[in-house]
Amino acid sequence: MRIEGSGFVVAGGGSGLGLATARSLRDAGACVGVLDLKQGEWDGAFANADVADQAGVEQALNVLVGKIGQLRGLLNTTGIGHSGLSAGPGRKVTAEGFRRVLDVNTLGSFILAQAAAERMIASEPDKHGERGVIINTSSIVAFEGQIGTAAYAAAKGGINAMTLPLAREFGRHGIRVVTIAPGIFETPMFSQARGPMVDWLREQVVYPDRPGDAVEFAEMVAHIGRNRMLNGTVIRLDGAYRVPPGRHDWWVD
After folding, report:
1. What single DSSP character describes residue 106?
2. Beta strands, E only, 145-230
3. What is the CATH number of the domain that holds 179?
4. Do the domain assignments include residue 132?
5. Could you list the active site residues?
6. Three-state DSSP class for 223?
């Protein structure tokens, strides 16, 4: 699929990986709109929505499509966490918190994918029969969740699990579905964090021996957009990072 001239919506594009990718896609010639709770540093087309709110997402996409034209690409980088021990001394994880993580990360990814697919199905395909690409963001924590990340790992694992069935369903319409599972990246949230767990995380990346740069995530998004054979798969973007178990005492006050 051509990036140049194509309409892209980046959910979570007000900051972090989403913002870097929205800017990169725009620089590559795409018509980009951002859907997020806050506009942040994004200075282009914007619509406010909670991705777990189906009606809100539908309304936001209608607004953005009116500004960027035919929707060809959706990138979802939204996500929240709810970390801590699940039982015993120092228990912090609650059913309410767990449910909210599932609502935003897993259900929100489905709501966005469904809404985007409906709009792509109604559009004309390109000369290759392609109507668009849907890219979700998971995490390597879905594969190797450390102690204290049960809710987040489950929610991101749900994104991984829906990738292939959605790709198989949407394929007849010329729509691809791909998920990126990033490792540690230098987003504002991570860069400002401090403590032994953060130091430990930084030491786990094999090569390059550093957290990823948001530009490297954006490059992967652009490659997925352009490469029609990338479909129905989860791509790790992690510098050979494999998450060790972690420690219980990081979560106990």
Report:
1. I
2. 175-182
3. 3.40.50.720
4. yes
5. 152
6. helix
Q: How confident is the model at residue 159 (pLDDT cuts 50, 70, 90)?
A: very high
Q: How many CA atoms lie within 13 A of 232 on its CB side?
A: 11
Predicted pLDDT at 205: 87
SS3 (DSSP) at 233 = coil
Structural domains in the chain (count): 1
Collect all residues with Cβ–Cβ distance below 8 Å to 95 and sequence separation of at least 6: none
At residue 217, φ and ψ (nearest 5 deg) are -65, -45
Residue found by looking up tokens 């697919």 in the block = 117
Contact indicator for 204, 184 with CB cutoff of 8 Å:
yes
- Please report whether residue 2 resides in a domain: no
The structure tokens listed for 85 are 């021990």
Within a 10 A sphere around the Cβ of 180, how many other Cβ atoms?
22
* pLDDT tens string 179-222: 999 998 987 666 666 667 677 777 778 899 888 999 999 999 99
Give 200 or 233, the one with higher predicted confidence: 233
CA triplet 193, 141, 164: central angle to 5 degrees? 135
Nearest Cα to 46, choosing from 28, 26, 54? 26
The boundaries of the domain holding residue 113 are 7-251
Residue 10's closest CA among 176, 1, 19, 2? 19
Q: Per-residue b/e over 90-103, b at no fewer than 16 CB within 10 Å?
A: eeebeeebbebbbb
